[in-house]
């Protein structure tokens, strides 16, 4: 008896009432509980999503409450009190987060929440401590060194706990340290060195992209989308600031944004795709207004620009369908 004949015999038996569907499912070990388990999975994921959302909301409320409380009692506090309610609280929450991560490794969310609260308070608290200790901040060096120390602090914590939240604060404080270090090393305010900061931002943006690529599939995978977005936005945004009144940059920038589109397909990143498309539209708009508005008339230029936008939107959607949304 081949497979087709066997299936026909089973169908006849079920139709004749000789065997029920439940008996067949039970005999084949296809219990209905499997279906219930499958259907329960979305509920569990919804539950976990709601839990994480409540954690984030609770952390935000705690931070806002602390800020409002400190603002209300700030004038009544002495130097020690001001340091305690800023840097002290931040370090306290950080310690609690570390203890929870160590004691409950199976549930790192609650520990990460306390680390998030601490991470928001520690940098500001460190600056308050410098001010209350009467450290001369005419130079940027004290603040730069402080953020460098915070960066190292979060690096060490991250090596100990391997948490994406700690990685985020290490990257954030490290970025602040880089900008402050450059500010301390050069003479004059930052707006006199626009070129330097533009190229620095491009380097930082490229570093974010490399970090995102390195984090894919690892325990920092949650940061990949954020790093792709800020990395591409920083790199292309800083490069776009070089476009104005610079013909070489105007030509090079087309290559950069097209490279961003190819990179979005390679990395399967919607963030890079959206950012690259937006900056490509901005660049095309600038080029159209700069070179074609007076020659063919602004209304005609707008019509051409509109069709270009439609074409770029079509290309962007196709890149998303073919290479990203798979």
TrEMBL record:
Keyword field contains Transmembrane: yes
InterPro entries, A to Z: DUF2157
Ranges that cross the membrane: 53-74, 80-101, 113-131, 137-157, 164-182, 197-216, 223-241, 247-264, 271-289, 295-317
Keyword Metal-binding recorded: no
Record keywords: Membrane, Transmembrane, Transmembrane helix
Pfam family, one: DUF2157
Ranges of residues in domain DUF2157: 31-127
Protein name in UniProt: DUF2157 domain-containing protein
Organism: Candidatus Nomurabacteria bacterium RIFCSPLOWO2_02_FULL_40_67
